[in-house]
Design goal:
8-stranded parallel sheet, single chain, Arginase, Chain A, alpha/beta
């Protein structure tokens, strides 16, 4: 269980996510919170390397209880959650950082421990996908984002946060026909949506979501995906009014209520890994982006509880 907030200041001591125990002994873990502090894949504003720290810092004010009438108990009653710390990355060396992250994630998957990864820019998802596919085979993807991240890159410069899911498709890590990209919008995305759809992705734009609403959107997602499933949540899927602290914000996105509802709706799906990326605290206002991100991680932990 996390340390009791009434015993000592919860803003003190080394910060782990919600003050869960810090350890790399996987024998004590069902779920591991893992930081991937890399942002050298950004094409606009950097700063997501500080995302894991920002999310952990604000998470100290979350209390381990279920919310509303959806859940009766905190996840820590049934799941052993640990903070694994950050995986080493190499500033300036993107391919080496991805290789290192993949190598360190493989034993976590092999141990049967569920990884909850905190980015970092979206490039880091590729290392988690590679490790996950090594253990589980080709994956379905549930991807919340303002952008499809399906650009082609250059022959000698393949990697940035906008090429992730094209590379993952080319490598056979994900099955686009059994995957959904939700919240896509903006002038940047308009140039590539057609290619993502042509590759087989089921794209639910922000306008589609506005018409469908959360319930119908979740029904559509559940009708598309099949296990094993990887969930990737880019915080820029949320409108910058609710999440300004990100590198490539796009207006007219999800509200905080929308994204919480969507994450809650994942309960019961055969998910094998989760990441939350692109939180850049340097652009945040009053830590509202970090606070939303920390709550979304906790909401996702609640979905892992046995029904």
């Amino acid at each position: 269980m996390p340390a009791d907030w009434q015993r000592g200041p919860y803003f003190g001591s080394p910060q782990t996510f919600m003050r869960v125990p810090a350890t790399r002994d996987l024998a004590y873990a069902d779920v591991a919170i893992i930081g991937l502090p890399m942002d050298i894949g950004t094409t606009h504003r950097p700063g997501a390397r500080y995302g894991p720290r920002g999310i952990r810092d604000i998470s100290c004010q979350l209390f381990p209880h279920g919310f509303d009438s959806l859940f009766l108990a905190p996840p820590f009653n049934q799941l052993r959650v640990v903070d694994y710390g950050d995986i080493e990355t190499y500033p300036g060396y993107i391919e080496q950082s991805l290789k290192k992250s993949q190598e360190e994630l493989v034993p976590i998957f092999k141990a049967g421990v569920f990884p909850v990864c905190l980015g970092g820019d979206h490039t880091i998802t590729l290392s988690v996908l590679r490790a996950a596919a090594q253990q589980h085979g080709t994956l379905s993807l549930i991807h919340f984002d303002a952008h499809p991240d399906f650009w082609g890159g250059e022959a000698d410069r393949r990697y940035h946060h906008g090429t992730v899911f094209r590379i993952a498709t080319e490598e056979g890590l994900i099955d686009p026909a059994a995957s959904a990209q939700i919240g896509i919008r903006g002038s940047i995305s308009a140039t590539i949506i057609g290619q993502a759809r042509a590759a087989g992705f089921n794209v639910i734009t922000a306008d589609d979501f506005a018409s469908l609403g959360p319930t119908a959107t979740l029904e559509r997602i559940r009708g598309l995906v099949r296990g094993p499933i990887y969930v990737s949540l880019d915080i820029d899927s949320v409108d910058p009014a609710f999440a300004p602290g990100t590198g490539t914000p796009e207006v007219a996105g999800f509200s905080s209520r929308d994204i919480v509802t969507l994450v809650r709706g994942l309960r019961g799906l055969p998910v094998v890994a989760f990441d939350l990326v692109e939180v850049a605290p340097v652009y945040d206002s009053a830590e509202i982006t970090c606070l939303l991100a920390a709550n979304l991680v906790y909401e996702f932990l609640l979905t892992l509880m046995p029904e």
